[in-house]
Amino acid sequence: MAVSRSLRRTNPITIALGALLTFGVLLFLFSSPSATLPTKRTFLASKQAAYNALSPPSLPFRKAKTGEAQAPPPVVHYHMNNVTTSSTPIENRETVLILTPLARFYQEYWDNLLSLTYPHDLISLGFIIPKGREGNAATSALQAQIAKTQASTQKKRFASITILRQDTEPPLASQNEAERHALANQKARRAAMSKARNSLLFTTLGPTTSWVLWLDSDIIETPPDLIQDMAQHDKPIIVPNCFQRYYNKDKNAMDVRPYDFNSWVDSATAQDLAKQMAADDILLEGYAEMATYRSLMAYMTDGAGDPGREIMLDGVGGTALLVKAEVHRDGAMFPPFPFYHLIETEGFAKMARRLGWQAWGLPNYYVYHYNE
Prior knowledge:
Elements: H1 5-9, H2 12-30, E1 95-101, H3 107-114, E2 123-129, H4 133-149, E3 160-165, H5 177-180, H6 186-204, E4 209-215, E5 219-221, H7 226-231, E6 237-248, E7 253-258, E8 264-265, H8 268-276, E9 295-296, E10 311-313, E11 320-324, H9 325-329, H10 344-354, E12 359-369
Parallel strand pairs: 1-2, 1-4, 2-3, 6-12
Antiparallel strand pairs: 4-11, 5-12, 6-7, 6-11, 8-9, 10-12
């Protein structure tokens, strides 16, 4: 005999299953996830720690304690429109990512980094170090300083620090200055530098980053307000003049001289040379064998002139290069191949210009390179 519909509805098994299903739905709707993850779509501050190695790289990662289960990767919503790049970065709490390809460790570089007045809790550091004996020594020296700087007793700790090690052999056996700047070594050396810069950038650039400061490991002296001073110009790409202190024997006194010749305004001569080159050839600056007659920012200085003076550039050096993060997000990187016969930082300026971003220079604002 068929069972009536009313009897089926009041069956104890049906009621139990319905109650269990209702309880499950309520538990799903009202329970909060563990690990205190955000319950609403909020923009995270850089000081908040990630809970898993797969979390965005702009947040510092903390390992789980011994015996403690590793929390799952968080699902976080970022409002990218909230990421500002302004002329008042401190007031707007804009995060800065300082990236340094590091072949040798100079204590003066680290001391200068610590002296920067930009709030350190808004600064993340990223390093990429080559394979080999010199790279191992640089890594050990860097880690020793990081251990001191990031100790719990230090109030001016950085938001996060990332160290990458390259897995390929460096193109040059030695990192001495003469070997690095030999004309014959430039294409291979700067192609390798481009790959290192790109690897470092793509690994560390996160959704909370406003500015990227490329700072070479042999830049040992900058104004303490370097970041604020350059950011206040509100330019997508801006570079200071890089000089070097040395002992002038003619004057029997310390003096300064230009060092970085990669920041320049293009010339008709250089453009004509490029037209005659093979597809894989590159133009280089600062070599008598390749006279381009470009206007070099290194020689545009007014000495003690206005440090805020701006000029438009076609090529930039990477010794101390401040870039709005959106320029990199837009696709501008460091070509390890000839790009319009340019490579590395000069190729970056060309690529950025093709994307609509103009590079600028500060001929009377100085940073100083280590003198070997």
